[in-house]
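Attaching the record inline, Q. Sequence:
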Amino acid sequence: MSIDPPRDRFEFWVRFVFGAVFGPLLGLMLVWWILPNIAMSWLVALCAAVFFGLAAAFWGDRFWHFLLGLFRWW
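Structure, as predicted:
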């Protein structure tokens, strides 16, 4: 994936916020099935928020298309 830098700061922060919101949701759903420790689950969710936020901010739509492509059933 090549980096698609945001055009301005506002776009960067909008992308980052949406990535940071959806990252922990997906992270917590996966982690609660795997890790019984609640503290570790929240740590993974925090790391997912940062990772998803930065990935969405720098790669934009390419990141979301890649992520949704992982969840295709057909």
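DSSP finds three helices and no strands in the chain. Residues 56 and 64 are 7 Å apart (CA to CA).

More tomorrow.
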